[in-house]
Design a protein that fits this description.
This protein is an alpha+beta fold. 14% of the residues lie in helices and 35% in strands. The chain is built from two helices and eight strands. A six-stranded antiparallel beta sheet has the order 3-4-6-7-8-5. The chain has a two-stranded antiparallel sheet with strand order 1-2. The longest helix is centred in the middle third of the chain and has 16 residues. The N terminus is likely disordered.
């Protein structure tokens, strides 16, 4: 596969190869002067036809920032969507590292437009090294409860 086959387009149409691509670049997230706070401009490419931020883009942006904070991949996440971020608004995503162990971390992000809370994300991050792994294409046979 050539590098152009795996190119991704980030903010402002910049092309990234798979090797250099970071989710924070895709969303156009930038760190602010405040520690552990990132900024997201609600652009057309991240918005619904109704002119507000796609919920999945809000969740994805929060996870991208939290992965940067923890230095680990996301394992699990949940989001509570509370309000809308409209086209042209700036969302600030504030992060908190709640707990961190040898293999996993738990963190939270709160996204706001001004004083208006848009969404809250709680998530777990990490991976445990193991000499074995498995994936089942079909659910294994198991007795009923």
């Amino acid at each position: 596969m050539s590098s152009t086959d795996s190119d991704q387009t980030g903010a402002a149409g910049r092309k990234y190869t798979a090797a250099e691509f970071r989710p924070v670049d895709f969303f156009g997230l930038t760190p602010t002067e405040r520690t552990q706070v990132w900024s997201l401009s609600v652009e057309q490419r991240l918005s619904t036809s109704g002119g507000f931020l796609f919920g999945g883009c809000g969740l994805g942006a929060a996870l991208a920032v939290l992965e940067e904070l923890t230095g680990r991949p996301a394992i699990w996440a949940t989001a509570q969507f509370l309000s809308f971020a409209m086209l042209g608004e700036t969302v600030e995503i504030e992060t908190v590292l709640v707990a961190s162990g040898h293999f996993t971390a738990q963190a939270r992000a709160v996204a706001r437009v001004g004083d208006r809370e848009i969404l809250t994300v709680n998530a777990a991050f990490g991976a445990r090294p193991a000499p074995w792994n498995g994936q089942w294409y079909e659910m294994p046979a198991a007795p009923p409860p």
